[in-house]
Amino acid sequence: MTDLTMEPTTDDDVVLLTVPADGGYLSVLRTATAGLAARLHFALDEIEDLRIAVDEACAMLLAIAPRGADLECRFSVTDDALTVQVSVPTVRGATLPSESSFAWKVLTALTTAASAGAANGKATITLLTRRTGF
Q: What UniProt keywords are attached to this protein's entry (predicted)?
């Protein structure tokens, strides 16, 4: 995968995790993020940046998720990048923070690329991080 389309290629490893949309479960996603980034030989500061970005993306989504919802996280691993796609169903009328918000500035500073979208009652944030020096 070379973009944020999330279309897997045959060379991708994909890990899917579903946890309750509750802040108490975000440590599971942070740990999975760190483990997969370490597998790609990301530098320690890159791993920490990605963990923070995933945490921030999840916080944005938890704010608009209905009670009892699940948070779905899809990790796509390639030779030089990790793409993390986090999704939740949304409450009616919910919107994601604007791309000029502080939260979005954090995401774009900590990752190679970030995007978001909402359709059919579900919001998704996608983060792409490429290993430096590859």
A: Kinase, Transferase
